[in-house]
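Propose amino acids for all 128 sites.
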């Protein structure tokens, strides 16, 4: 799947363990509850999507960008995020960061019911 454009896809609950997603374009993608353990996301760009409760343990993230994405409950344990660009993301105390990492600044989570929104509703709420 390297260099794929998966923009607008719904991949909730997908098992992408070990997937090759190098340089993938993942704009507005719902990866809620997805398994991305050991996946290769080097150079990938995820904007305006969801990684809610996703497992990214041991995922390769060098040069990847994640911005304006909902990370509540995402698990980055065992991943090296030192070269991951994180901008304007929403997360809370249920998000798991690698022990050596300092979590980036977060956009305040202001919508308690965001976890129950479908992707189009979520994306519309981000744009307003």
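Proposal:
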């Amino acid at each position: 799947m390297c260099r794929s454009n998966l923009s607008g896809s719904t991949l909730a609950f997908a098992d992408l363990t070990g997937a090759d997603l190098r340089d993938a374009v993942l704009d507005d993608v719902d990866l809620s509850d997805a398994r991305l353990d050991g996946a290769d996301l080097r150079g990938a760009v995820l904007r305006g999507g969801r990684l809610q409760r996703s497992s990214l343990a041991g995922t390769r993230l060098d040069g990847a960008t994640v911005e304006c994405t909902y990370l509540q409950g995402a698990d980055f344990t065992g991943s090296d995020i030192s070269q991951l660009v994180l901008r304007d993301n929403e997360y809370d105390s249920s998000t798991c960061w690698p022990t050596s990492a300092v979590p980036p600044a977060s956009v305040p989570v202001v919508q308690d019911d965001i976890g129950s929104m479908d992707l189009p509703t979520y994306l519309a709420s981000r744009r307003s």
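Residues 2 and 22 are 5 Å apart (CA to CA). Residues 1-99 form a domain with the Pectate Lyase C-like fold (CATH 2.160.20.80).
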